[in-house]
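haha ok so turns out i had the wrong file open the whole time. this is the CORRECT one, sorry everyone. sequence first:
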Amino acid sequence: MLSSPDLSFSRNLPLVVFNQLGEFLQQMAQVVGTAALVLTESVLVRISLPQEWRNQRFTLLISQEFSALLVGTLAPGYGGDCAAYNSNLTFNSEAIALFVSQVRDLFEGNSDTHQNLERYRELVRPNDAQTQTKFTLLLLEYIGTQSSQKIIDPLTPTDSPGCVAIPQVYTCQPVEDALKKQILQERLLNQVTTQIRKSLDLPVIMATAIGMVREFLALDRLVIYKFQGLSVKTDLHGITIDENLPPGEMGGCIVYEERAEGAISSVLSYQENDCWSKNSTCLAKYRQGFTLVIEDVEKTYVTEECLLNLLRKCQVRAKLVAPIIFEQNLWGLLIAHQCHTPREWSESDQSLLTSIAEQLAIAIHQAELMQSLQKATRTLTQEKQSLEQRVIERTKALREALLAAEAASRLRSEFLATISHELLTPLTYVIGMSSTLLRWPLGELSQRQRDYLQTIHDSGEHLLELINDILDLSQIEAGKTVLNITDFSLTHTAENSLESLLEKADSQQVNLQLDLQIDPQRDLFTADVQRVEQILWNLLTNAIKFTPGGGSVTLRIWVEDHTAVFQIEDTGIGIPEEQLPVMFEKFQQLDTPYRRRYEGTGLGLALTKQLVELHRGRIEVESTVGVGSIFTVWIPAQQQRN
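then structure:
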């Protein structure tokens, strides 16, 4: 049974009122959204109930933003049309979660219901403040409407057969007055909040908020006192505030004021420096959010002649003070004055003034940010005007430098392409003839001759790879490379890439592995298959080269949305962290003791990155020295050109 003491509502209710309140909660479910869950005692009809549950009714509302629980137990001695329920309405998340757990345990034999209730129990959170406020307003209006209706005096015998008198469960008029005041207070807060959201004009916000609050609380005077040292210089009436105080002193000035009538003296722009100090105990409390409540200054400040004389001079007999704080800084004070008579400040008065002060802090913060922005804008405008001429001059110089750089880059690419083409022809002869001699059927070659020929052949192949890489890079940088987009199988491409490198891996005693995580229905992909194979070949070759004997290289492939992901993981020597940023630059090699052993030009990864970016993809690397490296490539599906 419900055991939390944190109840928002606890009283006896007639059955008809209890049912109406339950219906109201069910209507609230439509307000908070379709994800809300509403449960009543009807869900228990299917199961055998313990005795304590048989005379209990409830309505339970659960959602991510708002949760509430209404529980009623049949009052002893009453039933039928005259039934009354001991009713509890709570918004406490712990109490609601406990109740859900108890209902869940009743369905121990029904796994589906048990799991669903457990899931909703985990969903229970403290209520969203705005939704709670909205519910409170609706509930107060609802109860107020019900209170205005004709109520049968429970002490008077009824005409219904079998009914007996039920003790009076509530009185209407005091509750109705309090509810009306609370509704008006909620509306006032909403109006102030709306005004702040709509406008950045601080004087308008201040005047509007002060006027409404003064009228609502029936105050003689409501003022805003601002401490020295912040940036607001001019108040609503155009009064400039002097903020230059000697070091070690604390003062301020009243910058906004609203009076009930002209007969009440004005304290606008009043400034005092004698009664404040930086070590003031009251100031320290204000910085912590303290609200000062003074019902009669003559009694409170009887031993503080300086401050009492100041208050008499300003016609202050009672006051209520709330601090205005933003970013943990005490900006000022919102002060309510009763000028001629003492006043007993209610909790609702204190709550309203504190809430308004919090909203004003937001407005002040917004206004000061806007002032800072405007100041920065003016500064930037001035700087812009002074920089415009220099920008024009620099633009001309940069354009000339850019044209020169583009011309140099174009000449370099053309030179590399020309030289590469010129080298291809003699290199083809070297590779072809050395290969032919190695297979020469006439005459027997000595071992030394065969070794020489093999060296010539291998060196030619290596030089051919280098020239092809240079050509590819030159073409890409010159913007002359065009992708040949086709549909192909990711599985076949991966298998072909590994098969072409099996002999190389075996010679270095490296284990090649393939990890395909592809749905067969998503195996077909659209890109330049030859370039994709080139990317995989470069990365796999690099991984094999830097993996010691007995290690492994794994090619892993999967598809995310419309993007193919290729991951090459090795157990090689790894890459130092300081060299990771330059891994994909041209002619970069590992600066390690293994440099001579692992020869290369440093073009492979640079070309790979260019090919990936040509597909509008990206490549990343993770590596740990002595553990291995992981290269991951994302290539989005390409659109075929007609």
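The CA atoms of residues 154 and 167 lie 6 Å apart.
again sry for the mixup
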